[in-house]
Amino acid sequence: MEDGVRILGPIEERFDEVLTDDAIAFVARLQREFGPRRTSLLEDRRRQQAALDAGEMPDFLPRTDIRQGDWRVASSPPDLVDRRVEITGPVDRKMMINALNSGARCFMADLEDANSPTWSNCVRGQVNLIDAAERTIALETSDKTYRLNDDIATLLVRPRGWHLTEKHVEVDGERMSASLFDFGVAFIHCARRLLERGSGPYFYLPKLESHVEARLWNDVFGFAQDALGIPRGTIRCTVLIETILAAFRMDEILYELREHGCALNAGRWDYIFSVIKKLGSRPDFVLPDRAQVTMTVPFMRAYTELLVATAHRRGAHAIGGMAAFIPNRRKPDVTEVALAKVREDKERESGDGFDGTWVAHPDLVPTAMEVFDGALRDRANQLGRLREDVRVTAHELLDVRVPNGDVTATGIRADVEVGMRYLESWFAGDGAAAINDLMEDAATAEIARSQLWQWIHLGTRTAEGNTVTAETVRRWAAETGIEGPARDVFEQVALSEPFTEFLTIPAYERLA
User: Fold this and answer.
1) What is the C-alpha separation between 263 and 467, in angstroms, rounded?
2) Radius of gyration of the chain (CA)
3) For residue 1, what pLDDT is reported?
4) SS3 of 455, please?
5) E-assigned strands of 426-502?
6) What pLDDT sits at residue 512?
7) Taking 70 as the threshold, does the pLDDT of residue 84 lie above it?
8) d(C-alpha 354, C-alpha 21), whole Å
9) Residue 306 has pLDDT above 70, yes or no
10) Residues near 127 by Cβ (< 8 Å), separated by ≥ 6?
11) Phi then psi for 413, rounded to 5 degrees?
12) DSSP assignments along 45-95, one per residue
């Protein structure tokens, strides 16, 4: 194996197909080449946070040639021209087969927020990606055989974010970047396989906070393609605009990645979390109960309309946010009401000019597809809708007042339950948890715990007239009956000072 590289996780069945000498040598090259820049960018994040805590406000860069120019991103390959419905989910074998067969145009296989990053999950997920690229992925259970249909969704992969490490792989005595590990292994094993079948290596990029972080990804792409002798521009990527800072850098992010084509996705849940994380220590940035922060409130409308206008001006697709509802055949009345809300959400997105949308469950694909079929008619997308009517200011992006919004006892209890139950699931190895008929992932758990932290930190009073306290949260956490690492980590990230940047960082240290 490559000198200076240590694999610290156990080798299970078929792991040797993933952790080949060539793959390990390749990810080690990525780490040595780009690891120091990643570390430097994470330091930049900490400096930026200190400036925000000191009172600085996010803002657009001064008008430059990038923002004023007429440049466009590379055009989409044939299987990414029509992205009207995308389904997302973890890299579990059964879920991947069902997602690829769901009738959605695209499937984002998620190694990040919907994946509990156990060593087994991460490497077995790569096994599943190889089989999916080969179109041989299958599963035999006691009562059913799962195989791919002839017509399947286009595969995209979301690696973990820049802030995360892979503790089971050390390069020259240091943990390697989880982003570079996930990307590198998927790329070296799947790129040629996908190209041979008329597709290509397509990726989603999470949690970016600046165009400089996008530049790092672009350089990684160039290096990887050169190393494998694949033409530059073969990789195509979609950027999740899921941080408040990235919302002010959409033009610049697209510009940095323009060679590799691009789409922007409205990562709504992480975006709400980011507003709290970056600005939540200030009283004028208190958000009400999560359920009241809908996509129709002014600051979320400003964000999504700016995303569509920016993407289309540059020839990039705009992909809408997640419908996280899980249809339940045992609750037809609940399902009927929820499907109506999903339809309303997708009608708003298609009406705003989005080219496609996300769903979390195969049973939501028909509803979303019907809405976008009606909006697109005989077109593959809405790139021609430039939304020149959109004029969004920094003030509109940052004015987080929610009309008639309140912090309530019900909202506090809901956050405690979601945070605790999600972490319990995460530590059990499942990063996509069905809780109260919603598919919750790390992003929604982040909203839950960060809201609690914010309300306690600022001494927020509820609509019932009570001050939110750590003692109240601890009492309700105890009432869930959940103990062990889930309880410990939840109380750490919801109650401790200073604010913990990501709950997955301390949680990962206790994950097997």
Assistant:
1) 43
2) 22
3) 63
4) helix
5) 433-435, 438-440
6) 80
7) yes
8) 43
9) yes
10) 14, 15, 17, 18
11) -60, -40
12) HHHHHHHHHTT----PPPP-HHHHS---PPPPPGGGS--SEEEEEES-HHH
Query: Token match 């103990």: residue?
Result: 483
Mean pLDDT of the chain: 97
Band (pLDDT 50/70/90 cuts) for residue 357 is: very high
**Whether residue 324 has pLDDT greater than 90:** no
DSSP secondary structure string, 95-155? HHHHHHTSS-SEEEEESSTTS---HHHHHHHHHHHHHHHHT--EEE-SS-EEE--SS-PEE
Q: How many residues would you count in the chain? A: 512
The stretches of 172-297 forming alpha helices (DSSP H) are 178-196, 211-228, 244-247, 250-256, 268-279
Question: Could you tell me the end-to-end alpha-carbon distance of the chain, in angstroms, rounded to an integer?
Answer: 24
Which residues are tagged catalytic?
158, 441
- The one-letter amino acid code at 56 reads E
Reduced to 3 states, what is the DSSP secondary structure of residue 417?
helix
The C-alpha atoms of residue 477 and residue 43 are separated, in whole angstroms, by 34
Q: What DSSP designation does 209 have? A: -
* pLDDT per residue as tens digits for the range 230-264: 999 999 999 999 999 999 999 999 999 999 989 99
Q: Determine which helix (DSSP H) or strand (DSSP E) holds 314, and give its type and residue range.
A: none
Closest CA to 486 of 506, 468, 456: 506
Q: In the block, which residue shows the tokens 């970056």?
A: 278
Tokens of 352: 């705003």
Phi, psi at 432, each rounded to 5°: -125, 105
Which residue's structure tokens are 């165009």? 211
415-454 confidence digits (pLDDT tens): 999 999 999 999 999 999 999 989 999 999 999 999 999 9
Higher pLDDT, 396 or 262: 396
